[in-house]
Amino acid sequence: MKQKISITIDEEAIKTIEELLKDSQFRNRSHxxxxxxxxxxxxxxx
Length: 46
Known about the structure:
Blueprint (H helix, E strand, L loop, with lengths): L10 H12 L6 H15 L3
């Protein structure tokens, strides 16, 4: 089950996310952030 959360990120990150969306690699901002977070968590498991 997914939960809605609120985050604050800088404008450069938003611009990068928007560029990824233009390339149609992701469905929406949430998809980009969720994918990135999942990858980060996998790389940093102990």
